[in-house]
Amino acid sequence: MPRRVDHATRRLEIIRATWRTMAREGVEATTLRKIAEEAGFANGAIGHYFHGKDELLAAAYTHVFTRTNERIAAVTHNLHGMAALRAYCHEILPLDEDRLLEARIVLPFWQQALTRDGQQEMYEGHMASWTQELVGLIEQARTDGAITSAQPDADIAGQLLAMLTGWQVLALLTPASADPAVQVAQLDAYLDGLDPAGRAG
């Protein structure tokens, strides 16, 4: 009897292989053949699951987004307010090699999303979900007295996302300026500045 194929598992294996290959070699150098070799599949097998590299890049980006959300959920599970907000942001910042590799997938996806139908909307949806979650944590921190700034919560969330995604770009293009300690220090300075009178302390 032929072995039954778990298509969902195989699809995930291909996505992970795509992520590893693109992170290691760059998007332009990545081919379907290299992805198949990385996954341990025959070259033609990928065509049964994805229609070309563009679709694979979008799937790899979604995989990165899912991984990030899983980490965020794990580290913020028992935290509240400002502590949860800091931890949330740390999981997006490219503070280690793993998160730096994720940024290598995110940046080319941004470029592709400019010209591919549906991908910009997908990215906007992901950012909207992060914004909503950040606003919830900002509201908690405000209730706790850790945020006293008059800025609207949505503006604070937008500024945080601009900072976090900006560091993803800088960490790849000018790595010497993106030391993890510098990233954390700038994030801390911004968050501390949301209580300008120091009333939280």
Distinctive features:
elongated; Arc Repressor Mutant, subunit A; 2 domains; 201 residues; mainly alpha; Tetracycline Repressor, domain 2; 0% strand; single chain
What are the secondary-structure elements, in order, as H or E? HHHHHHHH
CATH superfamily (homologous) name of the largest domain? Tetracycline Repressor, domain 2
Tell me the domain tally: 2
**Overall spatial form:** elongated
Proper CATH architecture of the largest domain = Orthogonal Bundle
Architecture blueprint of SSEs:
Elements: H1 7-25, H2 32-39, H3 53-76, H4 81-90, H5 97-113, H6 119-144, H7 153-173, H8 180-192
What does this structure look like?
This protein is elongated. The chain is built from 8 helices and no strands. It has 201 residues and is mainly α. The chain has 2 domains: 1-50, Orthogonal Bundle (Arc Repressor Mutant, subunit A), CATH 1.10.10; 52-192, Tetracycline Repressor, domain 2 (Orthogonal Bundle). The model has no long low-confidence stretch (mean pLDDT 89). Helices cover 69% and strands 0% of the residues.
Quick rundown:
This protein has helices at residues 7-25, 32-39, 53-76, 81-90, 97-113, 119-144, 153-173, 180-192. By secondary structure, it is mainly α.
